[in-house]
Design goal:
This protein is of the alpha/beta class. 36% of the residues lie in helices and 16% in strands. It is globular, with a radius of gyration of 23 Å.
Length: 285
């Protein structure tokens, strides 16, 4: 693939997951920048590195890491950074007799400081005020009797059907407790689709991101999260992060009149399951 295709595919994959790459409800340590030169990455590089999921903003090439006496942790994957390189035409010249220059897009790879050992650094991540628990939201979590484990090992929010685990960014990195709970509710709704719970098609028979089956699953998660947010009296903050995904599948909604109603029904079942409400019983606020 060309560099353009590499970059485009990376962004498209995020959009297909329901993520707007440049907007997330949790904080990081500022704009990504090179650890050695201290220069901030700009344009598409800023966006690409923001997608890496790391909290610290420092990046280095493999050679820079070696020169500083550090080493890359085993299993770490590099991130792509692109740059322009000007090449001279072999057949065309300017009016001044100099060769015509053409831009050529290239890329190189960098690693985040969190993937490196042997190099000391001062964290720039700003801690927000202490996380404030919401009693109503905590009651919802307690009501989920056969819930998956909830971890905070990565700065990404996702549900893993294979491991049956919900991972969340650390609580203190969110801009508010409502954003944390709304994001968590979204992932917990996904978890109800596991084979040992409601055995929903979009989870138990997981298809590729962007498929018609998964688009319905994403919509179910959004609706279910909104039901739980209404139940607890907090505003749903997650929709803006998946609106791009859902918009991409409006054609499904338009051609299938049963799509929305069926999705809402599945979302209600998922919310009821988390709340411990028996099938057929109405959920009240």
């Amino acid at each position: 693939m060309t560099v353009y295709e590499l970059v485009t595919n990376k962004i498209v994959k995020e959009l297909e997951k329901g993520v707007i790459p440049w907007k997330k409800p949790w904080m990081s340590g500022g704009l990504p920048r090179n650890f050695v030169s201290k220069k901030a990455y700009r344009g598409i590089n800023c966006l690409l590195l923001h997608l890496s999921g790391f909290t610290e903003p420092f990046y280095m090439t493999f050679n820079q890491i070696r020169k500083l006496g550090g080493s890359v942790k085993r299993g770490s994957r590099a991130q792509i950074v692109v740059y322009w390189n000007w090449i001279e035409s072999k057949s065309q010249v300017q009016e001044n007799g100099k060769p015509v220059l053409y831009p050529l897009l290239k890329y190189y790879q960098v690693f985040n400081i969190e993937q490196v050992t042997g190099i000391e650094y001062k964290s720039t991540v700003k801690k927000l005020s202490a996380f404030e628990k919401d009693d109503n939201c905590e009651a919802v979590l307690i009501s989920y009797k056969n819930a998956p484990a909830i971890t905070h090992q990565q700065q990404q929010a996702f549900y893993s059907p294979a491991a049956d685990v919900v991972n969340m960014p650390i609580k203190e990195s969110f801009t508010g407790s409502q954003e944390y709970y709304c994001t968590l509710f979204h992932e917990l709704i996904h978890s109800t689709g596991h084979q040992k719970r409601l055995a929903r098609e979009g989870i138990k028979d997981f298809n590729v991101y962007g498929s018609e089956v998964y688009s319905k699953e994403e919509l179910i998660a959004e609706m279910g999260a909104s039901f739980l947010c209404a139940k607890t009296g907090i505003e749903n903050q997650t929709f803006n992060n998946s609106v791009a995904y859902i918009n991409g599948w409006l054609s499904v909604i338009k051609k299938d009149s049963k799509f929305l109603i069926h999705s809402a029904t599945q979302a209600q079942k998922a919310a009821d399951h988390i709340l411990g409400i028996e099938p057929g019983k109405e959920m009240s606020k």
